[in-house]
Design a protein that fits this description.
This protein is 31% helix and 39% strand. The protein has 5 helices and 9 strands; from the N terminus they run E-H-E-E-H-E-H-E-H-E-E-H-E-E. The radius of gyration is 19 Å and the shape is elongated. It starts with 8 loop residues before the first strand and ends in a 6-residue tail after the last strand. The relative contact order is 0.19.
Protein backbone atom coordinates (compact mmCIF):
# COMPACT_ATOMS: atom_id res chain seq x y z
CA UNK A 1 0.00 0.00 0.00
CA UNK A 2 1.41 3.38 -1.04
CA UNK A 3 0.36 6.44 0.94
CA UNK A 4 0.82 9.86 -0.64
CA UNK A 5 1.02 12.97 1.46
CA UNK A 6 -0.65 16.13 0.19
CA UNK A 7 1.60 19.16 0.06
CA UNK A 8 0.88 21.80 2.65
CA UNK A 9 0.86 25.50 1.90
CA UNK A 10 0.79 28.50 4.21
CA UNK A 11 -2.59 30.29 4.14
CA UNK A 12 -3.73 33.59 5.60
CA UNK A 13 -7.42 33.68 6.52
CA UNK A 14 -9.51 36.77 7.28
CA UNK A 15 -12.53 35.90 9.42
CA UNK A 16 -15.21 38.52 10.20
CA UNK A 17 -17.11 37.69 13.39
CA UNK A 18 -19.55 39.22 15.85
CA UNK A 19 -17.50 40.70 18.65
CA UNK A 20 -18.85 38.58 21.49
CA UNK A 21 -17.32 36.78 24.46
CA UNK A 22 -15.97 33.33 23.68
CA UNK A 23 -15.76 33.57 19.88
CA UNK A 24 -11.96 33.51 19.83
CA UNK A 25 -11.94 30.47 22.13
CA UNK A 26 -14.45 28.71 19.86
CA UNK A 27 -12.32 29.36 16.77
CA UNK A 28 -9.10 28.29 18.49
CA UNK A 29 -10.92 25.23 19.83
CA UNK A 30 -12.03 24.29 16.31
CA UNK A 31 -8.39 24.26 15.20
CA UNK A 32 -7.19 22.41 18.32
CA UNK A 33 -9.89 19.72 18.22
CA UNK A 34 -8.99 18.81 14.66
CA UNK A 35 -5.22 19.01 15.11
CA UNK A 36 -4.72 22.08 12.91
CA UNK A 37 -1.88 24.39 13.90
CA UNK A 38 -2.29 28.16 14.18
CA UNK A 39 0.98 29.88 13.27
CA UNK A 40 -0.29 33.41 13.90
CA UNK A 41 -3.51 34.89 15.27
CA UNK A 42 -4.51 38.55 15.53
CA UNK A 43 -7.85 40.15 16.37
CA UNK A 44 -9.21 43.70 16.20
CA UNK A 45 -12.47 45.61 16.05
CA UNK A 46 -13.33 46.75 12.52
CA UNK A 47 -16.58 48.66 12.95
CA UNK A 48 -17.21 51.98 14.65
CA UNK A 49 -19.63 50.39 17.16
CA UNK A 50 -17.13 47.58 17.89
CA UNK A 51 -19.77 44.97 16.99
CA UNK A 52 -17.63 43.15 14.41
CA UNK A 53 -14.05 41.94 14.70
CA UNK A 54 -11.60 40.70 12.11
CA UNK A 55 -9.55 37.66 13.06
CA UNK A 56 -6.47 37.03 10.93
CA UNK A 57 -5.26 33.43 11.13
CA UNK A 58 -2.13 32.03 9.52
CA UNK A 59 -2.01 28.25 9.19
CA UNK A 60 -0.43 25.62 6.96
CA UNK A 61 -2.56 22.94 5.38
CA UNK A 62 -3.17 20.98 2.21
CA UNK A 63 -5.81 22.24 -0.20
CA UNK A 64 -8.27 19.59 1.03
CA UNK A 65 -7.73 20.41 4.71
CA UNK A 66 -7.97 24.15 3.99
CA UNK A 67 -11.39 23.59 2.39
CA UNK A 68 -12.47 21.75 5.56
CA UNK A 69 -11.16 24.53 7.83
CA UNK A 70 -13.00 27.21 5.87
CA UNK A 71 -16.24 25.19 5.80
CA UNK A 72 -16.06 24.54 9.56
CA UNK A 73 -15.33 28.20 10.34
CA UNK A 74 -18.20 29.27 8.07
CA UNK A 75 -20.63 27.07 10.05
CA UNK A 76 -19.94 28.87 13.35
CA UNK A 77 -22.96 31.09 14.09
CA UNK A 78 -21.19 34.39 14.89
CA UNK A 79 -18.99 34.16 11.75
CA UNK A 80 -20.00 36.60 8.99
CA UNK A 81 -17.41 35.55 6.41
CA UNK A 82 -14.21 33.59 5.90
CA UNK A 83 -11.77 34.64 3.18
CA UNK A 84 -8.60 32.79 2.24
CA UNK A 85 -6.43 35.74 1.25
CA UNK A 86 -3.77 33.38 -0.10
CA UNK A 87 -6.24 31.78 -2.53
CA UNK A 88 -7.75 35.14 -3.51
CA UNK A 89 -4.41 36.39 -4.79
CA UNK A 90 -2.27 39.41 -4.05
CA UNK A 91 -2.49 40.69 -0.49
CA UNK A 92 -0.37 42.70 1.93
CA UNK A 93 0.95 41.09 5.13
CA UNK A 94 2.76 42.91 7.93
CA UNK A 95 3.99 42.16 11.42
CA UNK A 96 5.44 44.31 14.18
CA UNK A 97 8.18 43.24 16.59
CA UNK A 98 9.77 44.84 19.62
CA UNK A 99 13.37 43.68 19.89
CA UNK A 100 15.45 44.31 23.01
CA UNK A 101 19.20 44.33 22.51
CA UNK A 102 21.99 44.82 25.06
CA UNK A 103 25.26 46.30 24.01
CA UNK A 104 28.04 48.73 24.63
CA UNK A 105 30.91 49.92 22.47
CA UNK A 106 31.16 48.26 19.06
CA UNK A 107 28.11 46.02 19.68
CA UNK A 108 26.00 49.13 20.37
CA UNK A 109 27.21 50.81 17.18
CA UNK A 110 26.58 47.65 15.13
CA UNK A 111 23.05 47.26 16.56
CA UNK A 112 22.23 50.85 15.58
CA UNK A 113 23.74 50.39 12.10
CA UNK A 114 21.72 47.22 11.47
CA UNK A 115 18.57 48.87 12.80
CA UNK A 116 19.05 51.68 10.30
CA UNK A 117 19.40 49.18 7.42
CA UNK A 118 16.15 47.47 8.50
CA UNK A 119 14.37 50.78 9.16
CA UNK A 120 13.85 49.78 12.79
CA UNK A 121 13.08 52.64 15.18
CA UNK A 122 14.57 53.02 18.62
CA UNK A 123 11.56 53.24 20.97
CA UNK A 124 13.53 52.97 24.23
CA UNK A 125 17.18 53.36 25.12
CA UNK A 126 19.38 53.07 28.18
CA UNK A 127 23.16 53.27 28.44
CA UNK A 128 23.34 49.48 28.03
CA UNK A 129 20.33 48.50 25.88
CA UNK A 130 17.87 49.45 23.14
CA UNK A 131 14.34 48.44 22.29
CA UNK A 132 13.78 48.55 18.54
CA UNK A 133 10.43 48.56 16.74
CA UNK A 134 10.55 46.88 13.36
CA UNK A 135 7.67 46.27 10.95
CA UNK A 136 7.43 44.34 7.73
CA UNK A 137 6.99 40.88 6.35
CA UNK A 138 7.77 37.77 8.38
CA UNK A 139 11.08 37.19 6.55
CA UNK A 140 12.29 40.72 7.31
CA UNK A 141 11.46 40.36 11.02
CA UNK A 142 13.11 36.91 11.18
CA UNK A 143 16.25 38.26 9.50
CA UNK A 144 16.47 41.30 11.82
CA UNK A 145 16.07 39.11 14.92
CA UNK A 146 18.76 36.70 13.65
CA UNK A 147 21.22 39.55 13.17
CA UNK A 148 20.44 41.00 16.60
CA UNK A 149 21.30 37.61 18.16
CA UNK A 150 24.88 38.25 17.08
CA UNK A 151 25.09 41.67 18.78
CA UNK A 152 23.24 41.05 22.06
CA UNK A 153 19.59 40.02 21.64
CA UNK A 154 17.77 39.85 24.99
CA UNK A 155 14.09 39.51 24.16
CA UNK A 156 11.57 39.62 21.29
CA UNK A 157 7.82 40.33 21.32
CA UNK A 158 5.90 39.91 18.03
CA UNK A 159 2.35 40.90 17.15
CA UNK A 160 1.51 38.21 14.67
CA UNK A 161 0.51 38.86 11.09
CA UNK A 162 -2.14 41.29 9.91
CA UNK A 163 -3.19 41.08 6.28
CA UNK A 164 -5.49 42.75 3.80
CA UNK A 165 -6.34 42.03 0.15
CA UNK A 166 -5.01 44.37 -2.51
CA UNK A 167 -7.38 46.31 -4.74
CA UNK A 168 -10.70 48.02 -4.12
CA UNK A 169 -12.78 45.09 -2.88
CA UNK A 170 -13.27 44.37 0.81
CA UNK A 171 -13.22 40.76 1.99
Amino acid sequence: MHITQEATERHTLAVLVDNEPGILARIAGLFTARGYNIESLTVSDVTRDKAVSRITIVTSASEHVMEQIIAQLDRLVPVHSVSDLTALGPHVERELALVKVAGTGDHRIEALRLADVYRARVVDATTSSFVFEVTGGREKIDSFVALMREVGLIEVARTGIVAIARGTDAV
